[in-house]
C-alpha cells in the first residue's frame, strides 16, 4: 500500500534526491517542471500511476508516447537523469512510477504552486497500454460531460476536475490543437484580440504536425502555477475548447469563478485533486517491478 515516505528505511534520501534533481533541471530547462506535471496526468489517468507512459516502443509493443493524446509531451530523457541519481545511491529501490509522482510534486513547487504531501510505494508496469490511452485521456475538443465522467472514474469530482485543468496555466499548446478555433472562421467564443494574437502564432490553417509552432497556455504568467488561467477563460482567452468549456458549462462555471477570485483556494483544491489522481490504482505487493531504467522494462 502507498504510504508517506515509503523509502524512509530503504532509501532515506530518495525524496531529497528527486527534489535536488528537479531543482537542477529546472534551472537548466525551466520547462522540465511543466513536463513533470503533465506526466503525472498522462501516466496516472491511464489505468494507474505505473510509469507505463515512460516505456519506449519495442518489438513487442508500441509506446504510449505515440498516442495522439500524448502529443507534445517532452523531457522524458531527464526522467532518466533523476533515475540515475537514485540508482547511484540506492540501486533497484525507487520506482519510476514514484519518480513520476514526486517530480510532479516538486515541479509544482518550482512553478510557485503549493507543496503537496504525496504517498509513495508504487511499482512499475511491465508493459504499456497504447490502445487504452484514448479511453482515459480526453481529447482537447471533447464535451465537458465526457471530460467530467473520465475524471469521475478515477475519483476526481467536478471541482477537482476544474482545479486540475488549471495546470493549463503553464506550458504550451501546438498550433494543430488550436487552428480549428481560428480557421476558416474564428470561434465566436474567443476574444477577438486574443484570436489575432493566436493567428500570429499560428499563421497557417494546416500546420505541420511537428513544427515548433505553438502558443503559451497563459501569456500573463506562463511559468507560474496560478489562477490567471481562470481569469483568462472568464475573459474568453481560453486556448483549447476544453478550457473554454469550463466557463460555458453551468456545472463547472461556479468553480471557475471561485478559483479566479482566490489563488490560495485554487492551490488547495489543485493539491487535493492531484493527490487523488496520483493514488489511482497503484501496483503493489509482488506485482510489477522496480525498473532499472525508466524507458524499458527489466531484462
Ligand atoms: C480534459 C483534460 C485535458 C485535455 C483534453 C488536455 C489537453 C492538452 C493539450 C491538447 C495540450 C497541448 C499539447 C501540445 O500541443 O503540445 C496540453 C498541454 C498540457 N497539459 Fe493538458 N489536458 C487535460 C488535462 C490536463 C491535466 C489534468 C493536467 C495536469 C494536472 C494537464 C497538464 C498539461 C500541461 C502541464 C501542459 C503543457 C505541456 C508542455 O508545455 O509541455 N493537462 N493538454
Ligand atoms: Ca499509466
Textual characterization of the structure:
There is one protein chain. The chain is mainly α. 43% of the residues lie in helices and 3% in strands. The strands form 2 sheets. The protein has a two-stranded antiparallel ribbon. The protein is globular and about 55 Å long. The structure holds protoporphyrin IX containing FE and calcium ion.
Helix content: 40-55%
Instruction: Briefly note the structural class of the backbone.
Output: mainly alpha
User: In angstroms, what is the radius of gyration?
Assistant: 19 Å
Strand order of the largest sheet: 1-2
User: Would you tell me the overall average pLDDT?
Assistant: 96
Which segments are poorly predicted (pLDDT under 50) over 5 or more consecutive residues?
none
Binding site for heme b: 168
Main location: secreted
Keywords: Biological rhythms, Calcium, Disulfide bond, Glycoprotein, Heme, Hydrogen peroxide, Iron, Metal-binding, Oxidoreductase, Peroxidase, Secreted, Signal
Domain Plant heme peroxidase family profile: 1-298
Amino acid at each position: 500500500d502507498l504510504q508517506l515516505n515509503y523509502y524512509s528505511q530503504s532509501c532515506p534520501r530518495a525524496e531529497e534526491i528527486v527534489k535536488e534533481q528537479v531543482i537542477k533541471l529546472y534551472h537548466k530547462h525551466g520547462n522540465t517542471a511543466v513536463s513533470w506535471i503533465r506526466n503525472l496526468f498522462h501516466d496516472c489517468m491511464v489505468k494507474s500511476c505505473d510509469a507505463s507512459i515512460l516505456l519506449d516502443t519495442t518489438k513487442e509493443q508500441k509506446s504510449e508516447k505515440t498516442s495522439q493524446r500524448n502529443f507534445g509531451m517532452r523531457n522524458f530523457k531527464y526522467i532518466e537523469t533523476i533515475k540515475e541519481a537514485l540508482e547511484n545511491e540506492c540501486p533497484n529501490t525507487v520506482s519510476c512510477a514514484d519518480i513520476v509522482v514526486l517530480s510532479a510534486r516538486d515541479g509544482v513547487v518550482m512553478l510557485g504552486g503549493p507543496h503537496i504531501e504525496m504517498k509513495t510505494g508504487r511499482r512499475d508496469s511491465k508493459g504499456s497500454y497504447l490502445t487504452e490511452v484514448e479511453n482515459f485521456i480526453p481529447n482537447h475538443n471533447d464535451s465537458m460531460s465526457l471530460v467530467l465522467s473520465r475524471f469521475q472514474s478515477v475519483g476526481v469530482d467536478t471541482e477537482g476536475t476544474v482545479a486540475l485543468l488549471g495546470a493549463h496555466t503553464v506550458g504550451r499548446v501546438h498550433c494543430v490543437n488550436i487552428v480549428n478555433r481560428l480557421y476558416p472562421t474564428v470561434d465566436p467564443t474567443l476574444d477577438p484580440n486574443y484570436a489575432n494574437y493566436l493567428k500570429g502564432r499560428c499563421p497557417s490553417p494546416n500546420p505541420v504536425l511537428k513544427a515548433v509552432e505553438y502558443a503559451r497556455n497563459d501569456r500573463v504568467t506562463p511559468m507560474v502555477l496560478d489562477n490567471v488561467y481562470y481569469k483568462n477563460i472568464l475573459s474568453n482567452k481560453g486556448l483549447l475548447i476544453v478550457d473554454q468549456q469550463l466557463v460555458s458549462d453551468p456545472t463547472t462555471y461556479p468553480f471557475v469563478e471561485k478559483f479566479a477570485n482566490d489563488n490560495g483556494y485554487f492551490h488547495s483544491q489543485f493539491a487535493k485533486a492531484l493527490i487523488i489522481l496520483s493514488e489511482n490504482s497503484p501496483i503493489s505487493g509482488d506485482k510489477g517491478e522496480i525498473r532499472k531504467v525508466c524507458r524499458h522494462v527489466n531484462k
